[in-house]
Amino acid sequence: MNNKNAFYAQSGGVTSVINTSACGVIETARINKQHIGTVFAGYNGIIGALQEELIDTSKESDASIAALRYTPSGAFGSCRYKLKSLQENKREYERLIAVFEAHDIGYFFYNGGGDSADTCLKVSQLAETMGYPIQAIHIPKTVDNDLPITDNCPGFGSVAKYVAVSTREASFDVASMAKTSTKVFIVEVMGRHAGWIAAAGGLASDCLTEIPLIILFPEIEFMRSDFCGRVEQLVQQHGYVSVVVSEGVRDGSGKFLSDQGLTDAFGHAQLGGVAPVVASMVKQDLGYKYHWAVADYLQRAARHIASKTDVEQAYAVGKATVEMALAGENAVMPAIIRKSNDPYQWCIEKAPLHEVANVEKKMPREYITPDGFGITDVCRQYLEPLIQGEDYPPYRKGLPQYVRLKNVLTEKKLHSFEI
Q1: Cα–Cα distance between 61 and 65 in angstroms, integer?
Q2: What distance in Å separates the CA atoms of residue 294 and residue 339, rounded to the nearest whole number?
Q3: Rounded CA Rg of the chain
Q4: What is the full DSSP assignment across 272-309?
Q5: CB–CB of 319/83 below 8 Å?
Q6: 264-270 contacts: CB < 8 A, separation 24 or more?
Q7: DSSP single-letter state for residue 268
Q8: Would you say 18 and 74 are in contact if contact means Cβ atoms under 8 Å apart?
Q9: Strand order in 4-10's β-sheet?
Q10: How is residue 390 annotated by DSSP?
Q11: Which strands make up the sheet holding 213-216, listed edge to edge?
Q12: With pLDDT > 70 as the criterion, what percentage of the chain qualifies?
């Protein structure tokens, strides 16, 4: 399959380092231009393939591609769109093949989370199901850190760093005001079913900087009386408390506290607004003055405080993707394998995609304290290496300088396609 072109796309919620993986893919492909042709990027993910909106990355300078390493968001646009099975929608797969054939594409690189891994797996089977040879490799990405096999997911380390830093800084603020004002600060973080991001808030407190913290995990059933009891206890002991709550926290009936009754494009419950729900409980049951905040996009867009470890790993999985493709691999994902905690050492190995797609990795119970409100030392040992180091972007006039690509679309060769 030498000299075939490649299709790269970004999927799902973006991160502060997904463009770093894109940089790794494109730079490595350019180094191996005798074996791989043009890298086309899907405009808005897989939708770009279906609608034949392919960005010609060869139109971008080496300097612009290198600048992707420091730029947050999805440089080519992302989407939440999950391919149905071949039996349910053969039309989409026929369209993909038509686009791939028209543009001589033999490599498919899909950068995303669990649903994206499923899409990538389906594309990898096109040779078997529809007779079109293509090598599909999934590039791991998700701030939720819930992909299996890989030790951690690119994007998570930087979110973890942002949440830990923000929780510590806000806690200092609350402590200074607690005597006559706010006694409870609540920050809501992402995490639908897995509490990895919430757990990162636990790093805000350590032996040198002790902070009264409560963490609410999706893995632990929320009990209002237990929660308010712990809030009262810590306020009485320390004068204040900070609460890190995951958007995916559920009550005893299994219902999300923040369920808005809406669903996203993947059919998942649309969450958001658990912080004010929890804050109202504090007010009603205890009468304490509170403040709450929702980290939302800020936590995953904060490239200015990205983890150096995360940046290095994001680039490494992008680079490994191309190398695996050129080695003839198909239906695999470059996974980060932890070799040791101290010193922190890791390597990249391939993981079978059928073991990744549609599998969600939750927090082990041993990572959560027995009372369900904090992280254990084992969890801390896992998390701490992932937030190490700083990798600041270039600054100009006090602001980070991020690149905006030209994103020149290649000429269409096929008829239009409605999705």
Answers
A1: 6
A2: 35
A3: 22
A4: --HHHHHHHHHHHHH---EEEEE-HHHHHH-GGG-BHH
A5: no
A6: 264/80, 265/79, 265/80, 265/81, 265/82, 266/80, 266/82, 266/115, 268/192, 269/192
A7: -
A8: yes
A9: 54-56, 36-42, 4-10, 105-112, 135-140, 332-340, 345-352
A10: B
A11: 213-216, 241-246, 184-189, 290-294
A12: 96
Round to whole Å and give the CA distance between 216 and 222: 8
Catalytic site residue from 144, 146, 310, 391: 144
Size (the chain), residues: 419
Residue 123: which residues within 8 A CB-CB, separation 6 or more? 83, 96, 108, 110, 134, 136
Say which residue the tokens 């819930």 belong to: 146
- Are the CB atoms for 133 and 106 separated by under 8 Å? yes
d(CA 81, CA 47): 7
Q: What angle do CA 102, 104, 107 make, to 5 degrees?
A: 125
Annotated catalytic residue 173? no
Q: Find, among 175, 178, 245, the residue nearest to 210 by Cα.
A: 175
Q: Read out DSSP for 73-127? A: S-TT---------TTT-HHHHHHHHHHHHHTTEEEEEEEESHHHHHHHHHHHTHH
Name all domains of the chain by residue range, CATH numbers in brackets: 4-142+306-359+390-400 (3.40.50.450), 156-303 (3.40.50.460)
Q: Label residue 222 exposed, middle or buried (CB < 10 Å: 0-12, 13-18, 19+).
A: buried
CB 384 within 8 A of CB 12: no
Using CB atoms within 10 Å of the CB of residue 371, give its burial: 0 to 12 exposed, 13 to 18 middle, 19+ buried. exposed
User: DSSP state, 178?
Assistant: T
Bridge partners of residue 390, in order along the sequence? 307
Distance CA 128, CA 122 (A): 10
| Long-range CB contacts for residues 251-257, cutoff 8 Å, separation at least 24 | 251/221, 251/222, 251/224, 252/221, 252/222, 252/223, 257/222
Q: Is 85 exposed, middle or buried (0-12, 13-18, 19+ CB in 10 A)?
A: exposed
Residue range 23-47: average pLDDT?
A: 97
What the block records as the tokens of 208 is 């040198």
Say how far apart CA 242 and CA 175 lie, in whole Å.
Answer: 9
**Each residue of 163-200: pLDDT tens digit?**
999 999 999 999 999 999 999 999 999 998 999 999 99
Helix, strand, coil percent values for the chain (each to nearest 5)? 40, 20, 40
pLDDT tens for 252-307 read: 889 898 775 545 555 555 556 899 999 999 999 999 999 999 999 999 999 999 99
